[in-house]
Amino acid sequence: MKITMLGYSGSGKTTLMHGMASTLAPGNADHDYALIPRRKNDDELASFNEEVDVLVDFLENAVEHAGSWPLGTNKTTIYPFAIEYLTNHKITNIEWIDFRGGLLTHIFKPAHRDEKELEALFFHLIESNAVVIVADSYHLSHFTRMDEIRHFSGAKTINMIMNRFDRVYPNRELNVLIVLTKADSVDASWKEENYQLLLDKGMEVFDPVVKLCRKNNNWNGGILPISVIGEQNVERKIMPKAELNSPMDIPFLAEDKIIGLPQPFNTEYVLYFCLGFSLLQMKNVTKESIADYQKTIEKALQDAGTLNSIWSFVRGKPSAAEIARRSSERKKKDEESLLQFESHIETLLDYTRKRVRLFV
Amino acid sequence: MNVERFVYSRTLSADYRWIITSSSLTSQETQFMERFLDLFKKYRFAYTKAPLKPLFCIHFPKTTVLFTLQSGMFKDEFGRDIYSLEGICAGRVHRKALWRKMPEIIGNYTAILNAWNDINFQKADNLVNKPSTSYTLEDLISGRETPQIENKEILPESSDPSDTIILPFVEEGLKKLKKTVNSPSFSPSNFAFGCTAEMVKEKQFRIIAYVDDKNRKEPQTKTTERGRKKSFISDTSDSALQITVENPQKVTEKKRFFTDEKWKKIVNKIRLIFLKK
Fold first, then answer.
1. Phi, psi (5° rounding) for residue B193?
2. What is the least distance, in Å, from the CA of A342 to any CA of chain B?
3. Are B10 and A102 inside 8 Å of each other by CB?
4. What are the chain A neighbours of B13 within 8 Å (beta carbons)?
5. Smallest Cα–Cα separation from B132: which of B12, B13, B30, B11?
6. How many structural domains comprise chain A?
7. Taking the CB of the first residue and of the last residue of chain B, which one, N or C, has fewer CB atoms within 10 A?
8. C-beta neighbour count of A91 within 10 angstroms
9. What are the domain boundaries of chain B?
């Protein structure tokens, strides 16, 4: 299973992922499900030392352990996880794609744009079971004009990409969750009645995506406010930029000082949504659709160009098509094993409905 | 002797990229260096505790690069620490000249390699792949506090020139590094002063100082107290220091069934058979 996060630089993608893994760390009595960082996306259990090492390596970056925010992501990174239920009952492996936010922030600036990285982003998107759109709640509440909000939150770019995705792959099964991060930072009025105002604004900002989710029978969508740090654990300082290089840049600097032990809220529901709906889709998808999926990937790669195959052949390395075929096989294996865990689907969806506003 | 600067970092609103680069660096070389920044980021907690900034000298086929890694000098618009890779490079023709200046550079590397002095951070968002201006090394060195260079020390001939010298990643180790590179018998070599075990896997280094990272998997080494085994470096100032001598070539050979020696023997036998015929 593959989950891809999309969002501008600084929106909180990496923080969300570490926060979620920290909340769902193995052995946490508060949660039935656990998200376990792995070295590789396979079923083999490493030695006790290695298992603990991987956990420690990953969780040391979580805010509650590091005592600071994760550094910005300068390279798109794929994090393999295993998902377990209660007594080490493994459900599936997932690959969590943490994209370098700058990739989207500078998508229209040729000098900053990395074509290869962008190509990889679209490739992962095509393969993903779920897309987590990450936007900073503060941007939604701070700016007044809708075009400003869409520009600075990244919604404009993301709406465009998702629109094209739906256009090219109309039959693709996808789950889209809009995550409004840093929900603790907005004024109290935005938080009333379970963040009603914030969620309304989020749906308005991402209106094209919301409409796509409603229109496309193969898509499930939802929106969720989250905070990795929780209420009153951060001191936010907003300062206007001393020198504004361009009116297109965010006009302020935001510095969030951690002043209390993190009390994350809603982070685990990101996983529940992605897992619940992906399992539901997988249950319903027959082997024919697996074959269709594979064909689509191959077609997409063919469209990318035959030069890639020739170049790979010359270099003696697997071609993009070969890589896609292998990953499809892994995916197929995942899907087959997931059919055995139907019982989890309803539980996960029940959890999801408690906190996620679904686009139905 | 001319050198060029390079910086890989991010600025206030613009994401990570090569802000200043040198035309003499290939894309493979820049990617190779980016890997060091990734690892620096991965082991940032270990580096936070370290008393010094790391320093790397790597000889590529046509270029020699000297770079350091750091974080926390600036913050981005979200208040996150910015980390950066910055350094200088010189063409192959200047390799020896650069090496001769190495003790002076090591003595003041944080200042000499710091390219941010030439960049207005607040206005650098639009700087991408800006070609470096050419500097004379003397210009970069001059004006800095001239470090005291100890008398040139003749290093004892090693029985095995491929031995790796392990130094401690502390001020004392830096002094030893300066002395070692200052030795006339020590030819230009790669060194990694303040590295992790993962970094060492990326390249063969002649001199290594490990940052104290918990993930360091000890290579198969012979640890000897100084004095018990003859070291490359002789210094009486700190007898408690431990110098580890390892031979990476031997370590890799342990894993190979057909070692170079075995191949030589096989080739010699075949040659003898043909000669007899």
1. -100, 100
2. 38
3. yes
4. 245, 249-250
5. B30
6. 1
7. C
8. 20
9. 1-246
Which of A53, A60, A111 lies at the smallest CB-CB distance from B128?
A111
Containing domain of residue A122, as a range? 2-358
State the Cα–Cα distance between residues B39 and B53, nearest whole angstrom. Answer: 14
Number of residues assigned to chain A: 360
Computed over its alpha carbons, how large is the radius of gyration of chain B?
21
Dmax over CA atoms of chain B, in Å, equals 78
Is A85 within 8 Å of A35 (Cβ atoms)? no
In tens digits, chain A (360 residues) has pLDDT values of 899 999 999 999 999 999 999 999 988 888 999 999 988 777 777 788 888 888 888 888 888 888 888 888 888 889 999 999 886 688 889 999 998 888 888 888 888 888 888 888 889 999 999 999 999 999 999 999 999 999 999 999 999 999 999 999 988 899 999 999 999 999 999 999 999 999 999 999 999 999 999 999 999 999 999 999 999 999 988 888 877 777 888 888 888 899 999 999 999 999 999 999 998 988 877 556 566 666 667 766 666 667 777 777 777 777 777 777 776 776 666 666 666 677 889 999 999 999 999 998
To the nearest whole angstrom, how far is the Cα of B21 from the nearest Cα of chain A? Answer: 14
CA pair distance B147, A200, nearest whole angstrom: 63
Contact predicate B21/B30, CB 8 Å: yes
Q: Quote the strand ranges of B17-60, DSSP E.
A: 17-21, 55-59
Say yes or no: B16 contacts chain A, CB-CB below 8 A: yes
Alpha-carbon gap, residue B8 to B119, rounded angstroms: 13
CA distance A102 to A14: 13
Q: Alpha carbon of A262 to those of A24, A231, A303, A359, B45: distances in Å?
A: 14, 8, 46, 30, 20
Window 232-271 of B: residues touching A by CB (8 A cutoff) are none
CATH number for A151: 3.40.50.300
CA nearest neighbour of A260 among A16, A60, A64: A64
Residue B144 pairs with which residues in a beta bridge? Answer: none
**What Å distances lie between residue A155 and A15, A140, A219, B76, CA to CA?**
19, 10, 19, 21
**Of the candidates B121, B49, B76, the residue with the CA atom closest to the CA atom of residue A256:** B76
